[in-house]
Structures are given as C-alpha cells and as structure tokens.
Design a protein that fits this description.
- The complex is a heterodimer of chains A (about 150) and B (about 325).
- Chain A is about 55% helix and about 10% strand.
- Chain A is mainly alpha-helical and about 150 residues long.
- Chain A is elongated and about 70 Å long.
- By secondary structure, chain B is of the alpha+beta class.
- Chain B has 2 domains: about 130 residues, Cathepsin B, Chain A, CATH 3.90.70; about 140 residues, no CATH class.
- Chain B has 11 helices and 9 strands.
- In chain B, strands 1, 4, 5, 6, 7, 8 and 9 form a 7-stranded antiparallel β-sheet that branches. Chain B has a two-stranded antiparallel sheet with strand order 2-3.
- In chain B, helix 10 packs antiparallel against helix 11.
- The chains are: A mainly alpha (about 150), B alpha+beta (about 325).
- The interface between A and B is large, with 39 and 50 residues.
C-alpha cells in the first residue's frame, strides 16, 4: 500500500553535501499532491545532519575546554576521559562501581594522585582504555608528568 | 549453533519495528505503523528538570517497552518479558530462548554497539534489536535501523545489555511465544487510538501532550534572553534531535502515526479516520517545517537566523493542529 518513490517534491531533501553517509534508514513521508503516505530508504537529509553535527560539535568544544583545564592542572585526566566518553559523574560511578563522592574527588589532580591500583583498574575497564593511557593522556606535556612524579614521591 | 530463519526488515522506529518483525516471524502479519498505533507510541512530553547531554529532555514517544507490551496485550499474544541482575543469567536465558526457537527482542544501550553508525553512538538506552541466533560466542543480530544483518560478540552484547545511565535496560529481553489462532485487530486499533488521544489531550498536566507543546513554545520565547544565543541554539538543537534523529521515521513519529490512521481507516471502514490521517499529514509537515527552520539556527555560531518567537509560533500552530486531531480521535466509538 506504500508507493516507493525516489523523489518527493514536498518533503524530500536533496542528497548533496551530506556529512554522514554510513547507513541508510527507512523514512515515512506524506505526499501532499496525492494525499497518501509513502516510505523510502535514504540517508538522513541535510537539515537533520546539521542538527546531529551540532551535538557532536558541542561535545568537542566541551572536551577541548576540559583538555585545557587538565593541562593547566585544574582537572585530572579522568575528567577528560569521562567527557570524551560522554559520561557524567553518576554514570561513571555506575559503570566503575565507585561511589559518586569518590568519583568527584578523583576528577581533580590531587585526588587522582591518590588512586589505588584497584581503582585505576576499575576506571580503565569502565572507560575501555589501558591504565597507562588513563595516567598519561597523549596531549599532556612532559613537564607536567615530571611534576606529578615529584608529588608522587 | 542456532540460526533462525528471521527476516530482516528495516523500520522507521526501532521498537515498533521489532514488535512487527517478531510477530511476523510467528505468522501474524502486522505492519510497522500498525504496531506503533496499537501500542499507542505517539506522545509528547517536555521535561525541563531532566537533563540529557546538558539540555532538557523532550520526548516524542512513550516509555521504552510500552509499545511491545500494549500491542501484544491488546492482540492477545502471550509474551515472556524479563529483566536481570546478573549478566551471566541474562545471557543464559537468552541462549535458552533461542534454543527453543524463539527470536528474542532486547533493549540495549547504543554507546557500545559496534555495528551502529558512529554519529548515533551516544548513551541512549532505549534502543531495541532482535537476536535470532548464536554460534560459538557470536550472536546474530537484526537491527531495524541498520541496513544489513549484523553480528556481535558475547562481551559486547553483555556490555550493551547492561548499559548504565537513565532508563538502564538491565538486560531486558522479550519475545512472543504463543499467538491466538484468529486475531481480530479491530478492538485493538480502537483502544490504541483512544489511549493515544487521551495521552495527548486528556492528561491535566502542563508538560504532557499538546499542553506540553504549548509550554515548550512559551519557554522557547524566553531562551535567547535567559540563556544567551549559543545555549539557546543548543537547546533548540536538542529538541530537534529528539524530533528528527534516530528512530522517529521523521517529524517525531507524526508521519508514521498518520500512516497508521490511514491503514486503520481501511480496516475499520471508517472514512473519517482517513480524513483525520490527512490532517495528521499536514501536522507532520508543519513539524518538518519547524525543524527545517530551526536547523538554520543550529548551523552557524553567533546570530540566529530565525527568531525564537517565530519558531515558537510554529510550535503553537503544530499544537493547534494536533489538538484538533486528537479531540476528534478521542470520540472514537467502542463496539
């Protein structure tokens, strides 16, 4: 009962300059002229992809902001990985099995330094990265890691 | 090794698609809009106190799991629905169900789904898919969003079934196991329509149904002053993402619901339902126009191209149209 149609004048968006072309989905349309419903398999149309991209751009901006704060020594690498995995404190707490108030402590460098091997392991499993990566993210400069060793000693 | 003869059909909305596909496997052919309509999946709610990705939640659908529950209940289909605490038990139960020859629907989180398109990989726990077989630690999956059949490893499946966060799936699995011989869809359709109409216009609460659309429109007028241009654009983007993104089949399910009303008019032989379905199509078109205009504000940083007052007026227009439609639908007669 659905008429498959390649082009629909009223609702169709042109398939050009698409940002995401990974997967085609099924969409329903309403044909104004013939007063019937149609459906077709297509990529998300351009206007929708703009909206999707806005969400990812906002995430990237947040990650960059946190990255700067980590480099400045105000936040720990854990905060960076938490944002990168689009998590918040309650969610990271659920995934790692560590209480929320402790997660909050670990988000600043002072608390992060005191992490035990067991807790580091839990975080690395929850965030799907190795412990080494968690301790030293690639963007951190060498001077900071030296400072860190001193505080460790 | 078990691999059931399950037909992979793409669908607009994951849960009603899964419901339709599962029933189709057992010989009860119900189209996807039909499953969506009988399960009364259409809804609207604006929840400013609940934040998702740093913006208030706008929902165009009912709670996860409701479409399957209501559809099977109204059709008299016997189902098995279960949640778990331990992952091992959940996987064991899944294997047992597959051994008995039932394809199983699962509620999963999308963040760790390996075959999912990367642009949708966020912590969204209301996705549904069907597992129809397993072989030595690999599970065969039919996902209504993805074009082709997919496979997933044991570890990944455990991870997505026990995703954490809001609406955590807790390994929820469900499958129909017994279908009555003669299924009469007529009463189910009428009750489904009645329930949806009540949800949209009959709930005396300002954040739900057409009242919710009006409330959102009122809030939207205040956004640029209250939040600043950039955050207002992000909030608007969140509304549009919930409306147009993954699994709504366009315009926040309004197209799919219109298709259901059209089909229902054919089955019930009531022409006024078909007229209403045309009105629904117009309402859907104005939702689509709203998202088209709104996306311009999300495109560039800085100045908004469309004023928020204009967009709020468009929302009021949508609310007016829908209120008219559901007032008509709420008068549908039981017989």
């Amino acid at each position: 009962m659905y008429k498959e149609k390649s082009q629909l004048a009223a609702d169709a968006c042109p398939d050009e300059e698409l940002i995401y072309q990974n997967n085609r989905e099924l969409f329903y349309f309403f044909d104004k002229d013939k007063n019937c419903y149609t459906r077709r398999v297509a990529y998300q149309c351009e206007t929708n992809q703009v909206i999707i991209k806005q969400g990812w751009d906002a995430l990237e901006e947040r990650i960059d902001g946190i990255k700067e704060q980590v480099i400045a020594g105000k936040l720990s690498p854990l905060a960076y990985y938490m944002e990168k995995n689009q998590m918040d404190v309650p969610m990271l707490s659920q995934y790692s099995g560590i209480r929320k108030w402790r997660v909050k402590k670990h988000l600043i460098p002072k608390g992060f330094m005191k992490l035990s091997a067991n807790d580091l392991d839990r975080y690395s499993k929850a965030l799907n990265i190795s412990i080494e990566e968690l301790k030293n993210p690639g963007f951190l400069t060498r001077t900071l890691s030296v400072e860190r060793k001193e505080t460790n000693d | 090794m078990i691999k059931l003869d399950f037909e992979h059909r793409q669908a607009g909305h994951c849960e009603s698609g899964v419901t339709s596909n599962l029933l189709h496997y057992h010989g009860l052919t119900i189209s996807e809009p039909m499953a969506f309509g009988i399960g009364s999946g259409l809804f609207f709610s604006y929840l400013p106190f609940l934040k998702m990705q740093h913006a208030p939640v706008t929902s165009f659908r009912v709670w996860p799991g409701m479409v399957f529950d209501r559809t099977t209940k109204l059709l008299g289909v016997k189902t098995h629905i279960q949640r778990f605490r331990k992952p091992e038990e959940a996987m064991k139960a899944l294997n047992e169900a597959l051994d008995q020859g039932f394809p199983v629907g699962l509620q999963v989180g999308t963040f760790h789904l390996p075959f999912f398109p990367p642009e949708y990989r966020m912590h969204y726990n209301m996705h549904n898919m069907v597992v129809y077989g397993y072989d030595n630690g690999t599970y065969f999956v039919s996902d209504t969003v993805v074009e082709k059949r997919a496979e997933i490893s044991y570890q990944d499946l455990v991870r997505v079934r026990f995703a954490k966060g809001a609406f955590a799936p807790c390994g929820r699995m469900y499958y129909p196991y017994q279908i009555p011989k003669n299924v009469d869809v007529t009463p189910a359709i009428i009750r489904g329509i009645h329930k949806t109409a009540n949800n949209m216009v009959g709930v005396p609460f300002p954040l739900i149904g057409t009242k919710g659309i009006r409330y959102l429109s009122g809030q939207m007028r205040k956004w640029p002053k209250k939040l600043g241009e950039e955050k207002a654009a992000y909030y608007l983007g969140q509304v549009l993402r919930m409306e147009e993104e993954i699994g709504t089949a366009g315009a926040g399910f309004r197209y799919i619901y219109g298709a259901f009303l059209n089909e229902a008019g054919d089955i019930l032989k009531q022409d006024w339902l078909k007229e209403v379905s045309l009105e629904m199509g117009e309402a859907a078109t104005s939702w689509r126009a709203f998202s088209y205009k709104g996306s311009r504000n999300c495109k560039k940083r800085g100045k908004a191209e469309e004023s928020y007052d204009f967009l709020a007026d468009m929302l009021i227009d949508c609310a007016d149209k829908e209120e008219k439609i559901f007032r008509k639908l709420s008068k549908i007669k039981f017989y």
